[in-house]
Write a structure and sequence with these properties.
- The protein is of the alpha/beta class and 282 residues long.
- It folds into 2 domains: 4-65; 75-281, Vaccinia Virus protein VP39 (Rossmann fold).
- Helix content is 39%, strand content 20%.
- It contains 12 helices and 11 strands.
- Strands 5-4-3-6-9-11-10 form a 7-stranded mixed beta sheet, sandwiched between helices. Strands 1-2 form a two-stranded antiparallel sheet. A two-stranded parallel ribbon has the order 7-8.
- Helix 8 links the parallel strand 4 and strand 5.
- It is elongated.
C-alpha cells in the first residue's frame, strides 16, 4: 500500500507543469482521502487504501485535463469563507473582495439595504451579510442553479439576512419595490469582450460559464445598463460599486459623467494597479 508521502510525491510529479504542483497535489490528496491537513504533515508514513489511491489519481486526471481546481474540490475561499462552487457557476476571484472592502468602508453599520446583482455562488452577498448582520441583503441572479448554490452557501454560514430573487439586472428589484430604497447596489458583471474571449486561458474558456464573463462586443454592455438603471433604486447618497476590466476605466467614467445624477466616479485599484472597481454615488 502507498503512503501519504509517496502518493503526494507522485501527484506532484504528474502535476509538474502547473504553476504550483505541490499545493495542488496536497489539495487533491486531502480531497480524495479522509485525512485533515494536520495529519498530512504529521503522519506522512500513513498507508492509504486502494480506493483512496484510485480516487486521488482520478482527481489528478481531471486536473490534467484542465478542469479548474475549485470545480474538483467543490470549494473556493473568498473573504476567508469557504464557498461551495460547481461547474456552470463563476469561480470567485480575489480581486472581487475589493467590493466587499469598499462597502464595509462606506457602511454606516445601521439597517441598510444592499443589493448584489448577479450573485453567482453568493460570495459577495454572503460575505457582506456576515459582516453586516443588521443589513438587509438582496441577492439576484438569472440562473436558478446559481441561486440554489448561493442559498446553500448562506445556509452553511448560518446567514439569515439575505433575500434571494431570480431576475435579470433590476427586474427583481422592481418586483420587490425597492425603488429609492437601496443604500448599495453591487455587481461583478460580465465585462470580457467577444474579441478577448478566445484569448483567455483554455481552463477558463472550456469550463467557466461564458455568460458570466462575456458581456458583448465592447465588454461594457452590462456595466452601462447598471450605471443607467441604478439611480432609480438608490437612496440619495447611495452607492453603486461595479467590478470592471483592465482598460475600461475611461469609458466607464464617461457613463457616469453622462448623467447629472451621479457625483464624479472614483475607482479602486487591485494589487496589480488596475482600476478594478468603479464607485458611483448619487
Amino acid at each position: 500500500m502507498t503512503t501519504l508521502q509517496e502518493l503526494f510525491s507522485q501527484g506532484r510529479s504528474l502535476l509538474k507543469d502547473l504553476p504550483n504542483p505541490a499545493l495542488e497535489a496536497k489539495v487533491l490528496l486531502l480531497k480524495s482521502t479522509s485525512i485533515q491537513e494536520g495529519q498530512f504533515y504529521s503522519f506522512p508514513e500513513n498507508k492509504l487504501s486502494r480506493a483512496e489511491e484510485k480516487r486521488f489519481y482520478k482527481l489528478v486526471s481531471k486536473r490534467l485535463a484542465g478542469l479548474p481546481l475549485p470545480y474538483i474540490t467543490e470549494v473556493k475561499e473568498f473573504w476567508s469563507i469557504p464557498f461551495r462552487v460547481s461547474p456552470g457557476i463563476l469561480i470567485p476571484r480575489p480581486e472581487t473582495e475589493l467590493i466587499v472592502e469598499k462597502v464595509l468602508e462606506f457602511s454606516s453599520r445601521k439597517k441598510e439595504t444592499v443589493v448584489d446583482i448577479g450573485t453567482g455562488c453568493g460570495n459577495i452577498a454572503v460575505s457582506l451579510a456576515k459582516e453586516l448582520p443588521q443589513a438587509r441583503i438582496v441577492a439576484t441572479d438569472t440562473a436558478m442553479k446559481a441561486l440554489r448554490l448561493a442559498k446553500l452557501n448562506a445556509s452553511q454560514q448560518k446567514i439569515s439576512n439575505i433575500i434571494f430573487a431570480r431576475g435579470s439586472l433590476f427586474s427583481a428589484l422592481s418586483r420587490l419595490r425597492l425603488e429609492g430604497k437601496c443604500d448599495f447596489i453591487v455587481s461583478n458583471p460580465p465585462y470580457v469582450t467577444e474579441e478577448e474571449w478566445p484569448k483567455l486561458d483554455a481552463e477558463i474558456r472550456n469550463h467557466e460559464p461564458k455568460s458570466a464573463l462575456v458581456a458583448g462586443k465592447s465588454g461594457l454592455e452590462v456595466i452601462h445598463k447598471l450605471i443607467q438603471g441604478a439611480p432609480l433604486y438608490l437612496k440619495p447618497g447611495g452607492c453603486l460599486l461595479v467590478e470592471i476590466g483592465a482598460g475600461q476605466k475611461d469609458k466607464v467614467m464617461s457613463f457616469f459623467d453622462s448623467s447629472s445624477v451621479w457625483e464624479k466616479a472614483s475607482f479602486v485599484k487591485d494589487l496589480n494597479g488596475i482600476s478594478r472597481v468603479a464607485v458611483g454615488k448619487i
